Amino acid sequence: MREHNIDKNLISNIEISDEMRESLIQDVKSGKRSKDTRFRYSTALTALCVIGVLAIGGGSASAAYISYKNRVNDMPQEEKQEYAEELGNDIYNAVDESMTRSLTGSEKERLAELQKSYYKDGVFPKENMLFLEKLSELKPDMLAYVEEDNMIHLPEGEMTDEQLLQYIDHEAKYLYTMEENTEQADTEQTSEENEVKTVEVSAKDEKTLKQDTKDLIQKIYGEEVNDSWSFYADEMDWSETEGYDESLDGYEISWSESDAPNAKTYQITIPKKSDGRFIINRYGMDVFASCEDYTWEEAQEYLPQGEETVKKFVKDNFGLGEPDRIEYGGTSNVDGEPTECAWVAYELYYGDDRVVVHWLISTNEVNSIMGKKLINVD
Predict the structure, then answer these.
(1) Element holding 368 (H helix, E strand)
(2) pLDDT 10s digits, 238-293
(3) DSSP per residue, 120-171
(4) N or C: lower Cβ tally within 10 Å for the chain?
(5) Strands 144-146 and 151-153, bridge-based pairing
(6) Is the pTM higher than 0.85?
(7) What pLDDT, in 10s, does the model give residues 282-306?
């Protein structure tokens, strides 16, 4: 086995055009990121590493969701200006980089539950999170965004449920501001020549894709989704755009538990041909709340355990035998600086074919797989 660094969070290893890869890197550096703002909620851009580009989930809007939309839509002008200034100052690649400390395990678990209450039940904080200009205004028990250092300052002690709701509310409003900014930029910059051809799937195909992906989620993760989840499917003809080939043509499917930006979500790419690229990935606060982060030095102690789990996973689910070789490595951000991460990426080589598997260290689970010739769709 050969150790190597996965440069720029695996972006260099994603099978996309050089133009798109560079665009993604530059967008992250500049703070624009991708259209799907849920990328920002995975430690070290996990979602971006694994799947490149996500489709945004659809589904009917609940009363609570409408209530949330009204809340962010109806912000007073002064509050909108505060979020616009924070967005303008943002230089971070992931949410945890913009905070003065990481969330504790208890805070992560309570955050996951309170976020469901926020988006699904319309439970909002009693007060807004503070915006302060100077660090001198801070107190140890405060939760606040401080303009002076462009950081979200968490209290020294464990956050209360009210503070966690304030944090959730802050991120919801921030995302709303980001989405408005992105939509405006897209309107100004979109070129029809570079757009990937997207076709709405037929009712018959949608029914088939729904059942097939339900079965895949059950088989691979031992978990179930039902019709209360948001389901979205698009037919993507990448090969009709310059720089892409037919192996990328397929159906982009997502199942999301709720409307929350980091709700539990399964993202699946079903290729049109059996030699095309298949991807299945899950992400969201529920997935990562119980996961611990490790430095690369710490993660190396667990590599043999991960290799055993990964090889069993690809054999049981896809019939793959012993790979010719395995490469693995730590992660770095877009500037090449080492980052802590909850997972290790294993690259398994079978002749000219490469399969990328992400393994969660602390839970000893496979979280995603990407590769060609993995499923039969003929």
Answers:
(1) strand 365-372
(2) 777 777 778 888 899 999 987 676 788 999 999 999 899 999 999 887 788 778 88
(3) HS----SSPPEEES-GGG--TT--EEETTTTEEEPPSSPPPHHHHHHHHHHH
(4) C
(5) antiparallel
(6) no
(7) 988 778 877 888 888 899 999 999 9
